[in-house]
Write a structure and sequence with these properties.
By secondary structure, the protein is mostly beta strands. The protein is built from one helix and six strands; from the N terminus they run E-E-E-H-E-E-E. A four-stranded antiparallel sheet has the order 3-4-5-6, with no helix packed on it. The chain has a two-stranded antiparallel ribbon with strand order 1-2.
Length: 92
């Protein structure tokens, strides 16, 4: 069992959380003007690195708030957890 540190509630079991995809993906300025191919690329294509990756999470069984986390995809270790209104931390 992994503990995930919610920025508001503190460490909780991973079963209380849900993954929300890649973090820091800007919504298109004019989605109605996008071609079907461009819209499909925006919706379905995300980065898939081996190593540190910024992700969105929600504490669905707790405070129900969204937050960001940097997780190493090769080890599953959480390297940083931060609120959505905070900048992405520099991970060395």
């Amino acid at each position: 069992m992994q503990l995930i540190p919610c920025p508001w509630c503190g460490p909780r079991e991973e079963a209380e959380f849900h993954y929300g995809g890649q973090a820091h993906v800007a919504y298109p300025d004019d989605p109605a003007a996008m071609s079907d191919a461009a819209w499909a690329k925006f919706v379905f294509f995300r980065d898939n690195p081996s190593g540190p990756f910024a992700e969105r999470w929600t504490h669905s069984a707790g405070c129900r708030r969204w937050f960001n986390a940097v997780r190493d995809t090769s080890t599953h270790d959480l390297l940083a957890v931060y609120r959505v209104d905070e900048p992405k931390p520099v991970i060395s």
